[in-house]
Write a structure and sequence with these properties.
It catalyses: (6R)-5,10-methenyltetrahydrofolate + H2O = (6R)-10-formyltetrahydrofolate + H(+); (6R)-5,10-methylene-5,6,7,8-tetrahydrofolate + NADP(+) = (6R)-5,10-methenyltetrahydrofolate + NADPH. Residues 6-120 form the Tetrahydrofolate dehydrogenase/cyclohydrolase catalytic domain. Homodimer. Its EC number is 1.5.1.5, 3.5.4.9. The chain folds into two domains: 30-115, Rossmann fold (3-Layer(aba) Sandwich); 140-275, Rossmann fold. Helices cover 39% and strands 16% of the residues. It has ten helices and eleven strands. The chain has helices spanning 8-28, 44-60, 75-87, 106-112, 124-129, 140-151, 171-179, 199-203, 257-261, 274-293; strands at 4-5, 34-40, 63-69, 93-96, 160-164, 188-192, 208-211, 229-232, 236-239, 249-252, 266-267. Strands 1-11-8-7-5-6 form a six-stranded parallel β-sheet. Strands 3-2-4 form a three-stranded parallel β-sheet, with helices on both faces. Strands 9-10 form a two-stranded antiparallel ribbon. The longest helix has 21 residues, at 8-28. The chain is globular, with a radius of gyration of 19 Å. The model has no long low-confidence stretch (mean pLDDT 97). The structure holds NADP nicotinamide-adenine-dinucleotide phosphate (NAP). Residues 141, 164-167, 169-171, 192-196, 199, 212-215, 233-236, 274-275, 278 line the site of NADP nicotinamide-adenine-dinucleotide phosphate.
């Protein structure tokens, strides 16, 4: 068996098309959705992420602003920019790109973002509203995983989903969303982590596997149930000789794609699976912020 590929790039393209249509309607009312980024330091991955998100804004007709700050920015200076973005009427939503340099207090920054502009859904106010289904914004990567499943015909309702990884940005909010009595939810959820013991024991029971570990190609085909659906959130750089790839690395997920593909019914690739969906959900949250203001 060779699994169907769940094409996150194509599905996110559909969503962006829908967002662009809604943006046109808002612009007709004189409102342009605006997404802001605060980027501290020179981390190349963070720069790339912010650039990609900025491009995505352009593609759907949003206005975007990036405030770049030097690596030695003080906490006070950073907080000043957060306040400025909170108050800026042209910014519907914004995010402070993480991780921050070690000397900065991430928690203080996240808690200072106005919940009405918290399009990453990291502020504890928004996180706390998730279980009740009364959230303003959906956390981007978990929401992207659910949207991918729904739009490719794998509604999680009634299925057993095993998530590996319990981070506060992926695994845990995803478990919350999937277990809600709401569309995109109604799943039975098992949340595994580094202390779960025999992972294969849990994975073999999963109708849907979600890997969010940060460990290259850790889940192999012989660890999963035949016919399951595999969503690979992991993005890992693996070094390869420059003759193979001029960058000197390639991106792989947390799932060993070739072996899992032989066992699963459907699987997401890395790259081109969950990654583009995360950006699409960020745009969706920004649109929602602008619509709420309207
Ligand atoms: N595509 C996207 O848009 C997107 C977005 C976010 C993250 N990611 C990627 O997703 C991956 C996970 O990110 P994250 O921020 O959630 O990572 P994280 O904060 O490092 O969390 C990793 C989780 O994996 C668990 N884990 C580690 N080793 C394990 C093992 N051997 N067996 C079982 N569980 C294990 C950890 O368990 P403990 O809690 O016990 O330590 C932890 O809960 C990374 O590759 C990241 O780059 C992708």
């Amino acid at each position: 068996m060779s699994a169907k590929i769940i094409d996150g790039k194509a599905i996110s393209g559909q969503i962006k098309g829908e967002i662009a249509e809604e943006t046109k309607k808002l612009k007709g009312k004189g409102i342009v959705p605006g997404l802001g980024f605060i980027l501290v330091g020179d981390d190349p991955a963070s720069r790339t992420y912010v650039r990609m998100k900025g491009k995505a804004c352009e593609a759907v007709g949003f206005h975007s602003v990036t405030q770049k700050l030097p690596p030695d920015t003080t906490q006070a200076e950073l907080m000043k920019w957060v306040t400025q973005f909170n108050l800026d009427p042209d910014i519907s939503g914004f995010l402070v790109q993480l991780p921050l340099p070690d000397h900065l207090d991430e928690t203080e920054v996240i808690e200072a973002v106005d919940p009405n502009k918290d399009v990453d859904c990291f502020n504890p106010y928004n996180v706390g509203r998730l279980p009740s289904g009364r959230e303003a914004f959906a956390p981007c990567t978990p929401a992207g995983v659910i949207e991918l499943l729904m739009r490719s015909g794998y509604d999680p309702a009634g299925r057993h989903v095993v998530i590996v990884g319990r981070s506060s940005i992926v695994g845990r909010p995803l478990a919350t969303l999937l277990s809600r009595k709401a569309p995109g939810g109604n799943a039975t959820v098992t949340l595994c982590h580094s202390r779960s013991g025999d992972l294969t024991y849990f994975l073999k029971q999963a109708d849907i596997v979600v890997a969010a570990i940060g460990s290259p190609e850790m889940i192999h085909g012989d660890m999963i149930k035949p016919g399951c659906v595999v969503i690979d959130v992991g993005v890992n750089r693996v070094e390869v000789p420059k003759e193979v790839n001029e960058k000197g690395y390639r991106l792989v997920g947390d799932v060993h794609f070739d072996s899992a593909r032989e066992v699963a019914e459907a699987i997401t690739p890395v790259p081109g699976g969950v990654g583009p969906m995360t950006i699409a959900m960020l745009l969706k949250n920004t649109l929602r912020a602008a619509q709420r203001k309207a």
